[in-house]
Amino acid sequence: MTFNLTRRAALTGAAALPLAAATTPLLAAAHSSGVHAPIAHNFKLGEMSVTTLLDGSAMREGPKPMFGAAATDEEFAQVSEENFIPHDTLQFYFTPTLIDTGSELILFDTGLGQGGLPKALAAAGVSPDAIDTVVITHMHPDHIGGLMTDGKPTFANAKYVTGSTEYNFWSKMDAGNRVGDMVTNLVKPLAEKMSFLDDGGSVASGITAVSSFGHTPGHMCYMLESGGRQLVLTADVANHYVWSFARPDWAFSFDASPEDAAASRRKILGMLAADKVPMIGYHMPFPAAGFVEGRGDGFRYVPVSYQMMS
User: Fold this and answer.
1) Helix, strand or coil for residue 264?
2) What's the rounded Cα separation, in Å, for the pair 171 and 187?
3) 183 vs 18: CA distance, rounded Å
4) What residues contact residue 27 under an 8 Å CB cut-off, 6+ apart?
5) Mean pLDDT taken over the chain
6) Could you tell me the domains of the chain?
7) In sequence order, which residues have a C-beta less than 8 Å from that of residue 250 and are 6 or more positions away?
8) Under a CB-based contact definition with an 8 Å cutoff, are residues 208 and 223 in contact?
9) What is the pTM for the complete model shown?
10) Tell me: the pLDDT tens digits for 172-188?
């Protein structure tokens, strides 16, 4: 199992690079509406302020091999039609999240490194130098790409947090593995300022790591709790708001261990549905926040409307 996971994780991580590299950010200038500009969306969670930041978006053709390789063409088309989306195209979103706890600014993931995140932060009125902590949910290119700018740390005053299993896996890759090389260039130079978490570890008061291995060997979600309210940052547990929810056992082609990823997907989505806890998903349609409803043997993603406006 370990050998297969290691080999597949390395291969699927490298395969994700063309997707990240070819992504064209769809970025708009900040409007006068401040943090409710199209690339930054803010709401309150108890005493915390939560802002989702659109780093970029991209259209892709031929989603079935990525999201439903084991399904028949007819089944994939049916699930798509039932949810009013085309079966032959998809739109990816890339959405880091900023948490203001009242005492520090904590950024979850850094995007593609193509300039989208700094623009979204500016729309939210935040300078990269103001970030106190950067948390990396996992080390795929679209999550670590923004750690460096012109060879220097983008977030010059930040400390860094990531999962120990995730770091240990990617940091030990032999030279020539494309994701491993990205980790060598973007993550390892920050290691002296980095701390490592396991399941249940605390980033800050009210922010707790939740293991959700499978998409990568050490993928983490994070539970936020403040003022009697909860929210889960699900990262890449579910990568599409229809196919990953309606058919949670369908493998996603970039999952390192499809079986473990499906188990994590069912665990996290099942908890969210049962407890009616909202989520922020990295690849959900912007502003990337919603709820989960159980439906048959799967789930349905319900995007937020006005109930999470500040």
Assistant:
1) helix
2) 8
3) 16
4) 39, 54, 56, 115, 116, 119, 120
5) 91
6) 2-303 (3.60.15.10)
7) 67, 68, 69, 70, 71, 243, 244, 262
8) yes
9) 0.91
10) 999 999 999 999 999 99
